[in-house]
Write a sequence for this structure.
């Protein structure tokens, strides 16, 4: 295994593009090192991104949006009050990843690019309409996060492409988001179902919504029918029922040791309801308590 | 396999070692630097027995490569007691409360608990339990560990 620690994303991309064997980028390493240890993936070239200037920074842009560097840890997201207040759902999703020790290292981009259908950080990004700056042999491009997952362990990134940063749009007025997952215990487990909802109100009426489901298909799902079920409503019982129905209809899960397909389908509806209520409440002004209140999110 | 020369700081001392790039920081601490206080319970990030601080951040050293330590600052359990051997209040309270049996998880839990108390000097029981959720103990049932951390926290607050 050759270890590289380039100082620019262009250099990182050149190493990856020129490599012929197994190549991995190293962000927090909480997936890469586990796979190395298990012997499932032993990279020929391992490209550490953490020496690139700026990879650890979180920046609020002039338009109110946020730029999150490729090496920003889950703990660092949770320690940024402005980000927690604008995008509590994104932060609480990543905050559910692993233990305190894992939180000190694990990144959003790594969570996304590892390609687990159950990745907890990804539904929140998709619901938020987040994008990524991708650096590759052809230069830089912006991709929607929703377009990056391509199946378990696979992404739509081309050979040599690396994510330099993730961008969240400006929160804007009367918006709110939330993420919850179902796991059989209270900590340290993989999502059976995850759901993120991001919405905007005009008065009490929902005028925009994005609903993403995790762990119920080979990739995260952005479910347009869920959004349609609640846009134009005040999230009354009928709207919540329609939302739950749309989430169940969209779920195409597998059965495994964590839950049967029937159970996952049912939980997708339950979570969609619950998470929509939280996002709605946040949009109305009562903000999240922050990601440290993990126990409440189960 | 060519080895890489790594220069880093461990418990305030400048050290260097030669690392195979596949070796974890835990391997390097134990095998190259002789610091065997950090334990390997799982090697996959689940148990916390290998907990250390990397530039102040609590991490599992089995999920960090040794070569990543270049130019960083690492704190391990070996740096917890004073150089004259005086135990840190957390270490003392673990003994007083019998918060260990086999002791395999103890270094990692002490390092993790110290990081908690620096960030939050007065944690609730559930905050302690969530913070330490990545530190597994197969002997004690956790209760005495929680009591020891609470007692040490109280003493440290009193001393401040
Ligand atoms: C004990 C434990 C518990 C965990 N619990 C959870 C959990 O509850 N929920 C969950 O979702 N995950 C969990 N994980 C998995 C893991 O922590 C997350 O997926 C994490 O977000 C990965 O981020 P990382 O920075 O560590 O990625 P790395 O391991 O550094 O990289 C992961 C993958 O992404 C690629 N990559 C990394 N950065 C980039 C980039 N900038 N551009 C392109 N590709 C890149 C790498 O090549 C690699 O294939 C857990 C892991 C452990 C060890
Ligand atoms: S040995 Fe590192 S977490 Fe178990
Ligand atoms: S005392 Fe034996 S594992 Fe904790």
């Amino acid at each position: 295994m050759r270890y590289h620690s380039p100082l620019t994303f262009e250099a990182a991309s050149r190493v990856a593009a020129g490599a012929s064997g197994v190549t991995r980028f190293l962000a927090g390493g909480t997936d890469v090192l586990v796979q190395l240890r298990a012997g499932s993936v032993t990279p020929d070239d391992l490209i550490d991104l953490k020496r690139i200037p700026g990879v650890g920074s979180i920046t609020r842009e002039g338009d109110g949006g946020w730029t999150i560097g490729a090496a920003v840890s889950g703990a660092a997201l949770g320690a940024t009050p402005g980000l927690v207040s604008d995008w509590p759902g994104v932060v609480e999703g990543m905050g559910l990843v692993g233990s305190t020790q894992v939180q000190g290292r694990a990144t959003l981009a790594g969570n996304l690019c590892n390609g687990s259908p159950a990745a907890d950080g990804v539904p929140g990004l998709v619901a938020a309409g987040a994008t990524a700056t991708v650096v590759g042999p052809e230069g830089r491009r912006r991709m929607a996060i929703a377009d990056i997952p391509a199946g378990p362990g696979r992404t739509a990134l081309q050979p040599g492409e690396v994510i330099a940063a993730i961008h969240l749009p400006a929160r804007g007025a009367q918006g709110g988001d939330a993420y919850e997952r179902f796991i059989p215990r209270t900590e340290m487990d993989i999502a059976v179902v995850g759901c993120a909802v991001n919405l905007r109100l005009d008065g009490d009426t929902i005028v925009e919504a994005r609903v993403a489901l995790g762990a119920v298909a080979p990739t995260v799902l952005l479910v347009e029918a869920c959004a349609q079920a609640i846009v134009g409503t005040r999230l009354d019982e009928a709207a919540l029922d329609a939302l739950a129905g749309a989430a169940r209809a969209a779920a195409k899960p597998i059965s495994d040791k964590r839950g049967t397909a029937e159970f996952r389908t049912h939980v997708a509806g339950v979570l969609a309801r619950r998470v929509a209520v939280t996002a709605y409440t946040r949009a109305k002004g009562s903000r999240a308590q922050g990601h440290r209140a993990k126990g409440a999110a189960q | 396999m060519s080895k890489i020369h790594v220069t880093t700081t461990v418990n305030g001392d400048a050290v260097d070692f030669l690392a195979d790039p596949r070796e974890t920081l835990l391997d390097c601490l134990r095998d190259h630097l002789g610091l065997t206080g950090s334990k390997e319970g799982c090697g996959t990030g689940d148990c916390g027995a290998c907990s250390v601080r990397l530039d102040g951040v609590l991490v599992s050293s089995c999920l960090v490569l040794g070569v990543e330590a270049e130019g960083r600052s690492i704190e391990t359990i070996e740096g917890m007691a004073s150089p004259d051997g005086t135990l840190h209040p957390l270490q003392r309270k673990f003994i007083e409360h019998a918060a260990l049996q086999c002791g395999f998880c103890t270094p990692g839990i002490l390092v993790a608990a110290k990081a908690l108390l620096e960030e939050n000097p007065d944690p609730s029981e559930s905050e302690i339990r969530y913070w330490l959720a990545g530190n597994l103990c197969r002997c004690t049932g956790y209760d005495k560990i929680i009591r020891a951390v609470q007692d040490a926290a109280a003493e440290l607050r009193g001393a401040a």
In short: The CA atoms of residues 53 and 272 of chain A lie 39 Å apart. The two ends of chain A are 40 Å apart (CA to CA). Residues 261-283 of chain A form the longest helix (23 residues).
